[in-house]
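Propose amino acids for all 204 sites.
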């Protein structure tokens, strides 16, 4: 299913029992409120989770302006698509550290490859769970302005959190986690410990 900004907004208005809109310029109270909050609400949802459909990989080019101290390199964040959140930097060695400051990554690494959440040019083909979560967040953010109900606001916020949790669950099924953890369950399964701790790859 192809989504649009209007279809996502109308799903939010349906959650609130409010009138649907035909465009963001149709002159209704609903369209004026949604036009004001849509970008902020949608980008908050996009930043809130590691959405597979928004994940990109790239190698950054270093800036000619180097940090004043602590780090050796500065890498401007991507603009196409626009980087909303850096998920991780591929470290070239175990001592590599990095930090986001402004619109740049500061690091000592001489190369910088990242995974990041990018803002889509269009919402036409985003994941259905992302579209549903944005609609719920819009309903929560717009609820008091549209229907003046604190109770509805709380209900819509709970709906948003449940949609976000559903997306997390599906995302975890569709990919393995690529970090190491230690658990007592791993010890029991493997029967091998090192100073009481066993390290194992997390696949759940």
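Proposal:
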């Amino acid at each position: 299913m192809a989504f649009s900004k209007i279809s996502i907004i109308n799903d939010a208005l349906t959650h609130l029992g409010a009138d649907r809109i035909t465009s963001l310029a149709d002159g209704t109270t609903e369209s004026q409120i949604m036009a004001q909050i849509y970008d902020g609400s949608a980008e908050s949802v996009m930043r809130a989770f590691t959405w597979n459909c928004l994940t990109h990989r790239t190698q950054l080019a270093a800036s000619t302006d180097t940090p004043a101290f602590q780090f050796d390199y500065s890498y401007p964040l991507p603009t196409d698509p626009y980087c909303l959140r850096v998920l991780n930097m591929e470290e070239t060695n175990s001592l590599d550290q990095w930090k986001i400051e402004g619109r740049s990554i500061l690091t000592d690494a001489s190369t910088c490859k990242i995974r990041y959440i990018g803002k889509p040019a269009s919402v036409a083909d985003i994941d259905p769970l992302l579209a549903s979560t944005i609609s719920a967040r819009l309903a929560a953010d717009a609820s008091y302005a549209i229907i003046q109900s604190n109770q509805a606001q709380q209900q819509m916020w709970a709906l948003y959190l449940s949609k976000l949790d559903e997306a997390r669950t599906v995302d975890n099924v569709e990919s393995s986690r690529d970090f190491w953890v230690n658990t007592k369950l791993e010890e029991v399964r493997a029967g091998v410990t090192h100073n009481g701790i066993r390290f194992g790859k997390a696949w759940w």
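The first helix runs from residue 5 to 16. The mean pLDDT is 87.
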